[in-house]
Amino acid sequence: MKSYITRTFLGTFLLLLSISLSAQNLTKHQFMVKGNCGMCKERIENTAKKAGAKSAVYSIDSQMLSLETKGNISADQILSKVAEAGHDNEKFKADDDVYKNLPACCHYERASQSSVSEMPHSDHKKSENEFFVKGNCGSCKARIEKAAQDAGADSAEWNAEKQSVTLHFDSSKTSADKILKKIAEVGHDNEMYKTTDEVYKKLPGCCLYDRDIAFGETNPKVHFEETANNGNHFNHNDSEDHTANSGKEKSIEQVNITGSKAATSINKKDAGLVFNIDKKELLKAACCNLSESFETNATVDVSFSNAVTGTKQLKMLGLDQKYTSLTKELLPEIRGLASAYGLNFIPGRWIESIQLTKGGSTVTNGYESITGQINTELIKHSEKSETSLNLFADFNGRAEANITHVEPINDHWTQTFLLHGNGTFGDTDMNNDSFLDRPKGTQLNTAYLLNFNDLERSGFGSHFGINFIKDERTAGQIGFDKKISQSQQNLYGVGIDISRFQVWNKTGYVFKGKPYQSLGWMNQYTYHQQDSFFGMRNYSGNQHTYYSNLIFESIIGNTNHKYKAGASFLYDGYDETYLTNRFKRTETVPGIFAEYTLTGLKYTLVAGARADFHNLAGTQFTPRLNFKYDLTSQTILRLSAGRGFRTANIFAENQQYFASNRNIQIAQNNGSIYGLKPEIAWNYGASLQQEFKVFGRKSTVVADFFRTDFQDQVVVDLDRSPQQLTFYNLDGKSFANSFQTQWDFTPLKNFEVRLAYKYYDVQADYMEGRRQVPFMAKHRGFVNLAYSTNKNAKEGFWSFDTTLNLVGKQRLPITSTNPAEFQIPAYSESYAVLNAQISRNFNKKIRAYLGGENLTSYSQKNAIVDFRNPFGNYFDGGMVYAPIMKANFYVGFDVTF
């Protein structure tokens, strides 16, 4: 027995010794290798193992290959084979023909230099103890070397020219990983770790190196987020220029590493013309709600507040807001009864980002988009618990407060609390017509969001939200008392009370081992109630909406061929009362859709179609096509075409005309919605995006042309009589031509310029003949200037923003049959509106700002027709084409805890 135990002990000891010696013979390496997607990852790892590596793990995020080798197998042999397979690395460059023969999804961005030794990250790496570390000066050198020694290095020498540090250390006491982590903690990005923005900003000015967001970031910040052009899928996204499809991260479309980017940008990879608007853009103006979020954006036109109701509307491609799909979290948002006031229900401080698509959008998001889509994402991402407070007030009695709180519960759960309240208390009448220039009232708006993200382990992600709004406003003549019935007082009044409730959920699953395949399901219920009166006229309505959308996404063969397929269901229950007439209807719309994406070396084609089975409008077929071709790496051509249809909510969408004494007439045409047929239109577009350098800095010009042709349209006719508002179906043609050219450039450091010119030709066949659509200027100009002092200064920085809108003359509704004193001109004047804002960031936590709107103080004369006799035949508060209020100033304060 003793002999047996001895032999067993000896055998075990020899086995452990063998394993120990074998492990000691393993050598670890880490090298930069270029790749782009899950197929790249698999190819690189398999090639390395076949070349003799004991293990090989490739990270697409950091572009780093981690190897373990043994014996005579050298890292150079392995990297040579990896290059032969088509992947540039820090030692060898792939043959051009081999690279070109890779699948299109594998075509990573190649270094422009002719030799690999000049590629980023490679800079003549001479030993396994040399690592790439960012720095800028002698102070950086001292800081880097001290941090390395504090982490256990025997010696460290940083080379500014090569941007690398050579380390000597005892591996039994410390490791390169530990040393580089310490170097990042003191403010220097390196090939394994990226310093935090807060630490970087605290470095002395001479040490602020040029940060490269693709530089060796092994643990990039990623977001679980849905974007407008990715359906309901769960993607890590943010930046346009450094993107990689990662099997490891289980992303369907893209993994974008967060870094410094423009406040508004166009993703060069999107087939459609999509503007990504960051919350930094929203801080350039007051941005109290969504209607004010586009003041510094040239694509969207914002109409001026109605003289009585105070509403604003968006216009895109020369057409009213109702033809643009307005979504929140990719779910239907501002539509139906919310059309008139819905823009006020999304506070600006709640917005994390906006995706604005011009022209045809994806069929996965529904059939109602005709001129484009505007999707709003709410704040829901934070690496640490963060509470923000915003206070705002203007000099004419408006005040608001916003509180947002984002809190990571654990590694997978995050919750967001959003609270908004506003009130307008002052009697503002700048034109002395006895009518309030904007309504008084209050709004309470609160939301709760809960996010679950476990894509890495289980493949599941989910987003839940709930929102409640109570909005009350009073308008009309100064002194009107809303508590007293209109029939018991002589003053003209308007009262609008709105209650709104929403609850939604989006859940996605990414199939294990198949990062290109996912299933997403979104559901939302909305209840909207409005009770209102306009003088002696009453309008009330409620709407129940349920929306569901199921999307499956996968590939055909490889990721060059992607497809989405799914089914949707929409239920709308409307119950409206205008005067004594009740309009009640139910719309149910089951639908199916499919979309195919073909990706080539220089082109992307997205073709989709959907069929919707509307219980009132019949079966509707909606095809859409987007095509992008890269003429060069800096020149992009995009083409689009598509069809859309919608049912018109004629009362809710035209409430700005209720504050008048126009009689409403509906010329019924055997339709099922108010006796009218649905609206159907085709949209076609082309755009050219060109990038070039001005003063050595990036500059972008985008020119686009879109045409919308209506097959059917509900015409809103204000011309037949000044005392009449008529709705009828189009008999003839109705079209909108839109041309825009925009130039963004940076002539000086921290000085951004945006110039744009827009031309619109919008005409329709009315009963009396073809005319220009009213309230649409043919010519518009736009200038936005933004300048900031040194944003990295410890003592904070200043920002200066100004926007000039030039608006050409507009055709106005015909009033020639009115008495001369109550007639308005056939065309408006041209005018200019100047807004400006100065803000002071004291540090990352505190910001104060002061701004002015309509600093030119241009205001429309006689905005209300016959304002002295609001109950007479000629009273009309809907003829607004320009600002009503003169210059208005505001102040605000932001603090983050």
UniProtKB/TrEMBL annotation:
<dbReference type="Pfam" id="PF00593">
    <property type="entry name" value="TonB_dep_Rec_b-barrel"/>
</dbReference>
<dbReference type="InterPro" id="IPR036942">
    <property type="entry name" value="Beta-barrel_TonB_sf"/>
</dbReference>
<keyword id="KW-0732">Signal</keyword>
<feature type="domain" description="HMA">
    <location>
        <begin position="126"/>
        <end position="191"/>
    </location>
</feature>
<dbReference type="InterPro" id="IPR000531">
    <property type="entry name" value="Beta-barrel_TonB"/>
</dbReference>
<keyword id="KW-0675">Receptor</keyword>
<keyword id="KW-0472">Membrane</keyword>
<dbReference type="InterPro" id="IPR036163">
    <property type="entry name" value="HMA_dom_sf"/>
</dbReference>
<feature type="signal peptide">
    <location>
        <begin position="1"/>
        <end position="23"/>
    </location>
</feature>
<feature type="region of interest" description="Disordered">
    <location>
        <begin position="224"/>
        <end position="249"/>
    </location>
</feature>
<dbReference type="InterPro" id="IPR037066">
    <property type="entry name" value="Plug_dom_sf"/>
</dbReference>
<keyword id="KW-0998">Cell outer membrane</keyword>
<dbReference type="InterPro" id="IPR006121">
    <property type="entry name" value="HMA_dom"/>
</dbReference>
<feature type="compositionally biased region" description="Basic and acidic residues">
    <location>
        <begin position="235"/>
        <end position="249"/>
    </location>
</feature>
<protein>
    <submittedName>
        <fullName>Outer membrane receptor proteins, mostly Fe transport</fullName>
    </submittedName>
</protein>
<dbReference type="Pfam" id="PF00403">
    <property type="entry name" value="HMA"/>
</dbReference>
